[in-house]
Amino acid sequence: SFLLSSPLLGIHSGTSKGQPHCSDPSRPCNPCLDATKACNLNENCKRQRSNYISTCTRAQTQSQQPSQSQSQDSCNRKRCHKALRQFFERVETQYTYGLLFCSCKDQACAERRRQTIVPSCSYLDKSKPNCLQLRNTCRMDVHCR
């Protein structure tokens, strides 16, 4: 399971210090789009974000099969988790928090945000494990433990 190692306490709003705010009345307010743009303007954030997106979606784009189980079979979850952890460890919090805590006003924005920050490769399984299997898996994984 994917766990963040950074402390997430102290965040009270959808933006953080240095993150663009929706203060321009001449354009629609979209904090998630602003956070993504800010990340793309920072070379490290852009590189790390591209890395986890390509790692976590590679199997889905290569399979070319509409069947969800096909892409789950070829998804390398451990590599996806590692890329996600590296993103949060290597990128400044002003960018990661902006992406994690941006506020959405509609369901489409919320779903795009969820798919970007939590790709299906990181949590979907071909079969659903029971709670004892989850417990044992967590005990064997240093990050989960």
Would you kindly provide a written description of the structure presented here, covering whatever features stand out?
The protein has 145 residues and is mainly α. It is 57% helix and 0% strand. The chain is built from 7 helices and no strands. The chain has helices spanning 31-41, 43-63, 68-74, 77-90, 93-100, 107-117, 131-140. Helix 1 (31-41) runs antiparallel to helix 5, helix 2 crosses helix 3 (68-74) and helix 2 (43-63) runs antiparallel to helix 4. The longest helix is centred in the middle third of the chain and has 21 residues, at 43-63. The radius of gyration is 17 Å and the shape is globular. The relative contact order is 0.19. Residues 1-20 and 60-72 have low confidence and may be disordered.
Concise structural overview:
It is built from 7 helices and no strands. It is mainly alpha-helical and 145 residues long.
